[in-house]
Design goal:
Structural class: alpha/beta
Strand content: 15-25%
Number of strands: 25
Oligomer: single chain
Distance between the termini: 35 Å
Shape: globular
Radius of gyration: 22 Å
């Protein structure tokens, strides 16, 4: 018999970007008791809080689920790493800190698909509510919120050359791609404050943990949801080698993310009946949409040799530069240690007449054979060209009834012809930018894919062999009003009482930007809806 903890009003499964928001907002009034379960450990590693430390977490099993995608024999016939945060703060504790919301059209499309309350005008309030914008409050930004959003403390020669080059190539300069107009390029903003990462755990959970009505249990791996018929009543979890459980007086809120949330639902009997039965799992409700509709940003990365030793590569391979960089960061909170994954970037349109730009470009001041590997032993930087609105669709499916076994993740990267054409267009646009006069004396040429690869077939072959994920999986518990939707527009699991999914998995379609800010917005909006329903 599983040990039973006291009943809480709300149980949140997953202390990631959305889960931390929920824990804060649902405990604010003091009226409700909340239990937050997290499979990972506490966020005590100093490299979580030093922004450049994100590079150390790609292969760190202490804070990362270390997922890998399945091979697709037709296109990307290899496993692609899919890091996900397994730590307090979730992926917001190990991501690249880039703050980009996507475009107005992304959210307006959600509303057009029948999701009332999710247009851009509806959700802008929640973006602003979450934000503590260094530049201050404006029509599109908020100040005083839990999530710090900051500019780089210092400019960089490579970033300046890039922004000159994009204008020479005919693109717009735009210092706020999260403002009125998303097109164009500028310096990137990061979720940091005074050179320290502001994860959802730092911004939202840390102040909430002082409240007596919040209980946080780390190293607690949820094994299954508990039901009384078609009503969710609690969560079973494993901790210290024992199975335990907590009960929910009001609701269970699943916030495990686009990989773990569908996995937990399937392990609990919510999913495609045939899949569940094949693993000996009793079907609570046949839900073919659980784990379906996986979307992610796939990219082609252009790499260049820098003409000067001014990149992360040079710091990594020089003890003297490490000391200099460490002192600069320790004394001033400046330099490349305060850097998120990208220093500059923005959006460009590939197809004439597209509703919004299809390609995001991000300038990264390092190069390596694969993410998380040792940087190259020479000065180098990268331009990541990622497709924003892919048509390729994949799935997440359990392969065992054992919760410790990773699910099958099949994104089907590049399976849609249009995705391949847009990516090729994005890489060519990137090369055009990198060929402008602004780069004279700044870079010494492209070494990957390399100037010898020019034709469509050659570049597609490169993408098959070396294309990467931008680590933005979404949509596996899709919100909608049709029969395959997993949750309704109030994020309630269809056909099940007392259960919601609140994380990036509910996005009907992938946003045209990084997914951390939208996931925090989803948490903010969900908290309001949950509190409204609780008070009704």
């Amino acid at each position: 018999m599983a040990e039973t903890s006291p009943t809480f009003d709300f149980i949140i499964v997953g202390a990631g970007s959305a889960g931390c928001v929920l824990a804060n907002r649902l405990t604010e009034s003091g009226r409700y008791t909340v239990c937050l379960l997290e499979a990972g450990r506490e966020d005590t590693s100093p490299w979580i809080h030093i922004p450049i430390g994100y590079g150390k977490h790609f292969t760190n099993p202490l804070v990362n689920w270390l997922y890998r995608t399945q091979k697709n024999p037709d296109w990307v016939d290899r496993q692609v790493i899919q890091p996900r945060g397994k730590v307090i703060g979730g992926s917001s504790s190990i991501n690249g800190l880039v703050y980009m919301r996507g475009h107005r059209q992304d959210y307006d499309l959600w509303r057009q698909m029948g999701n009332t309350g999710w247009s851009f005008d509806d959700v802008l309030h929640y973006f602003k509510k979450s934000e503590d914008q260094q530049r201050g409050e404006s029509e599109y930004h908020g100040a005083g919120g839990p999530l710090a959003v900051s500019d780089p403390a210092t400019r960089h020669e490579i970033a300046d050359a890039f922004l000159d080059a994009v204008q020479q190539a005919g693109h717009e300069r735009n210092d706020d791609v999260n403002g009125a107009k998303p097109d164009g390029f500028g310096y990137v903003q990061w979720t940091s404050r005074n050179g320290r990462r502001c994860s959802a755990a730092v911004g939202y959970l840390k102040p909430a943990r002082k409240r007596p009505n919040l209980t946080v249990i780390s190293n607690a791996h949820a094994t299954r949801l508990l039901f009384d018929g078609k009503k969710a009543t609690g969560v079973a979890y494993e901790a210290d080698g024992m199975e335990k459980s907590v009960l929910a007086g009001r609701e269970v809120l699943v916030s495990g993310g686009a990989i773990n949330s569908p996995q937990l639902l399937q392990l609990s009997g919510l999913g495609p009946a045939e899949l569940l039965q094949s693993h000996g799992i009793d079907v609570v409700q046949d839900m073919p949409g659980v784990g379906d509709n996986l979307q992610d940003h796939f990219n082609g990365t252009l790499m260049y040799r820098s003409a000067k030793p001014n990149t992360v590569n040079d710091i990594f391979h020089s003890p003297w530069r490490k000391i200099q960089t460490g002192l600069n960061y320790g004394l001033r909170r400046q330099g490349l240690m305060e850097m998120g994954a990208a220093y500059a970037g923005g959006y460009t349109q590939i197809e004439p007449g597209a509703a919004s730009p299809e390609i995001q470009m991000l300038l990264m001041l390092f190069t390596a054979d694969t993410p998380g590997d040792t940087p190259h032993p020479f000065p180098g930087f990268s331009l990541v060209c990622a497709i924003m609105r892919p048509e390729s669709r994949g799935s997440v499916q359990i392969v065992s009834r054992d919760h410790r076994t990773a699910p099958s993740i099949q994104p089907n990267y590049m399976s849609a012809e249009k995705d391949r054409q847009i990516l090729l267009g994005g890489m060519r646009a990137g090369r055009e930018i990198m060929a402008q006069p602004a780069w004279e004396g700044v870079h010494e040429g492209e070494f990957r894919p390399g100037p010898d690869l020019q034709s469509d077939d050659e570049l597609v072959a490169f993408l098959k062999e070396q294309g990467r994920s931008s680590y933005h999986p979404v949509s596996t518990c899709r919100m909608g009003t049709d029969e395959r939707a997993v949750v309704d527009p109030r994020l309630r699991v269809n056909g099940i009482k007392g259960l919601r999914v609140v994380d990036a998995s509910i996005m009907p379609t992938l946003v045209s930007g990084n997914t951390n800010a939208p996931t925090i917005m989803i948490g903010e909006k969900a908290a309001d809806m949950i509190l409204e329903d609780a008070a009704a």
